[in-house]
Specification:
By secondary structure, the protein is of the alpha+beta class. Helix content is about 45%, strand content about 10%. The chain has a five-stranded antiparallel beta sheet with strand order 2-1-5-4-3.
């Protein structure tokens, strides 16, 4: 959460600067005068609750931080934060569970803002063979799990490009959210020693997409990932959830995943 500033105007100015918008840019987007916006930012004008929410929408301020802005102006926070198993979020939880299950035999998982694992389908577990138990304890962090030298990193065939992709994604998230936990995670990952690259040469996708390529024994599994978020959340928890789904990038990967899925069903 953003540290407390002197007044609400400083919060708004900080977010406007983060979004690389001038006062004129924001005033035009919000359909207000530049003079009025200047007065709000300097504390010479006290904005209404509706005006604050309108400006926050134009600045794409995360819901968690919109509460901070509201409180700084003397208003009650508007956006609740509930656990995903809260009865109020039952419909959302059912939707998540349905998507995860329907995506089998392909892996899918749900993470929170800081990439802590919230839920996953059964196709994820076989991919974690060999991961240090301490990385799986409690609520695992997916970024740490994948890039730590005791995690999946030694088995990622294209570790260099995947690590660069992951760090860039985290950097963009920090820019969008200003979350200090994400910034700390970036520094942690940058400090990991990089294990030797696997002997197997990954397939080139011609810069169209960056695959996630994982060695599973003698099999190279190649995945293309997609990201899904809730479109119009009014709860902080839902606004910070991301559904990561992985699709086989080639026939060999699809066959291997289906075989593993059939084996699990037979063993059940």
């Amino acid at each position: 959460m953003t540290p407390a500033l002197k007044h609400v105007g400083e919060h708004l100015r900080a977010w406007r600067t983060r979004r690389r918008m001038s006062q004129m840019d924001l005033a035009l987007e919000a359909d207000i005068s530049t003079r009025h916006l200047s007065f709000v930012e300097t504390g010479r004008a006290q904005p209404s609750r509706e005006m604050l929410l309108h400006l926050a929408e134009q600045l794409d301020i995360p819901l968690r931080e919109r509460n901070v802005v509201l409180v700084a102006a003397g208003f009650a926070p508007m956006f609740p934060e509930r656990r995903l198993d809260d009865p109020h979020l039952a419909a959302a939880r059912r939707a998540v569970d349905v998507i995860l299950k329907a995506h089998e035999p392909y892996p899918a998982l749900v993470v929170d803002l800081r990439w802590n694992l919230v839920a996953a389908n059964a196709a994820i577990e076989p991919l974690l063979a060999g991961v240090a138990p301490e990385l799986l304890a409690g609520q695992p962090n997916v970024m740490r799990l994948s890039l730590h030298p005791d995690g999946l990193a030694p088995r990622i065939a294209n570790l260099g490009e995947w690590r660069a992709h992951a760090l860039e994604r985290l950097r963009r998230q920090v820019e969008l959210t200003a979350d200090p936990g994400l910034a700390d995670l970036i520094e942690e990952i940058r400090g990991y020693p990089q294990p030797p690259a696997p002997d197997r040469r990954p397939e080139d996708y011609g810069n169209v997409a960056i695959p996630f390529q994982l060695l599973a024994g003698d099999t190279l599994l190649s995945f293309l990932g997609t990201t899904t978020v809730f479109g119009t959340p009014v709860d902080i928890t839902l606004s910070e959830l991301t559904l990561e789904t992985f699709f086989p990038a080639d026939a060999a990967t699809a066959d291997a995943l289906r075989a593993a899925h059939d084996a699990r069903l037979s063993a059940a």
